[in-house]
């Protein structure tokens, strides 16, 4: 299905393992080019940042970035393409929040809420101990962890500072600035 209008879409990229595509930073650059060619769009991209692995101590530091583009593809089609790209880059889903060559998260598709406010809030409020064990079996939009993650909000603020979370009704800047300063300071420009 295609939307009649092009919709602002944000995707987070992360890598903390090398592959035939190179270092995590090089993987992010290659992945952005692949997304642009696959989705037929031009992406506005944040700088690439180095961030501690989440959860802390679970592996090497990450290279993280966020891209912004407009598309008339529906969210499920975008997610399907992102999963195909992850696989092409050597992503194997064996451990939740484990080391990975490429992680692509669909953060938002305009102000779309999927499947509904109640389900989004359920996943947003899930305790961290449960988050490490279970994942939703359907697409949740906006991504339920945006507001908690400096490694998403810092680069996101570079490409979509005024995007407003349709459930929390806060901008990216508001959510970023609500995080502890120590977490924000851990997100540094990649060398």
Automatic annotation (TrEMBL):
CDD domains, alphabetized: HPPK
The pathway entry for this protein reads as: Cofactor biosynthesis; tetrahydrofolate biosynthesis; 2-amino-4-hydroxy-6-hydroxymethyl-7,8-dihydropteridine diphosphate from 7,8-dihydroneopterin triphosphate: step 4/4
Q: Mind telling me which Pfam families this protein's record contains?
A: HPPK (PF01288)
Which EC numbers characterise this protein's activity in its record?
Answer: 2.7.6.3
Q: Does the keyword Nucleotide-binding apply?
A: yes
Keywords, ordered alphabetically: ATP-binding, Folate biosynthesis, Kinase, Nucleotide-binding, Transferase
Can you give the residue ranges of the 7,8-dihydro-6-hydroxymethylpterin-pyrophosphokinase domain?
96-107
Matching entries from InterPro entries are given as: Hppk (IPR000550), Hppk_sf (IPR035907)
* TM helices/strands, residue ranges: none
> Mind listing the GO biological process terms from this record?
folic acid biosynthetic process; tetrahydrofolate biosynthetic process
Enzyme class, top EC level, equals: transferase
Say yes or no: keyword Aminoacyl-tRNA synthetase present: no
Q: Which GO MF terms does the UniProt record name? A: 2-amino-4-hydroxy-6-hydroxymethyldihydropteridine diphosphokinase activity; ATP binding; kinase activity
What family name appears in the similarity comment? Belongs to the HPPK family.
Function, as annotated, reads:
Catalyzes the transfer of pyrophosphate from adenosine triphosphate (ATP) to 6-hydroxymethyl-7,8-dihydropterin, an enzymatic step in folate biosynthesis pathway.
Please identify the protein, giving its name as recorded.
2-amino-4-hydroxy-6-hydroxymethyldihydropteridine pyrophosphokinase
Origin organism is Marivivens niveibacter
Provide the taxonomic classification.
Bacteria, Pseudomonadati, Pseudomonadota, Alphaproteobacteria, Rhodobacterales
């Amino acid at each position: 299905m295609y939307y009649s209008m092009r919709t602002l879409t944000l995707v987070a990229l992360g890598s903390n393992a090398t592959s035939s595509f190179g270092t995590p930073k090089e993987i992010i650059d290659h992945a952005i080019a692949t997304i642009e060619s696959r989705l037929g769009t031009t992406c506005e991209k944040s700088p690439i940042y180095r961030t501690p692995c989440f959860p802390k101590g679970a592996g090497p530091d990450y290279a993280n970035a966020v891209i912004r583009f407009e598309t008339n593809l529906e969210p499920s089609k975008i997610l399907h393409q992102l999963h195909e790209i992850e696989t092409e880059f050597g992503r194997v889903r064996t451990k939740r929040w484990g080391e990975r060559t490429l992680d692509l998260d669909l953060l938002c598709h305009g102000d779309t809420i999927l499947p509904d406010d109640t389900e989004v809030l359920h996943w947003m409020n899930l305790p961290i101990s449960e988050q490490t064990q279970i994942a939703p079996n359907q697409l949740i939009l906006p991504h339920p962890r945006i507001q908690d993650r400096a490694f998403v909000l810092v680069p996101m603020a570079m490409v979509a500072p005024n995007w407003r979370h349709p459930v929390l009704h806060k901008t990216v800047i508001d959510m970023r600035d609500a995080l502890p300063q120590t977490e924000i300071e851990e997100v540094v420009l990649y060398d």
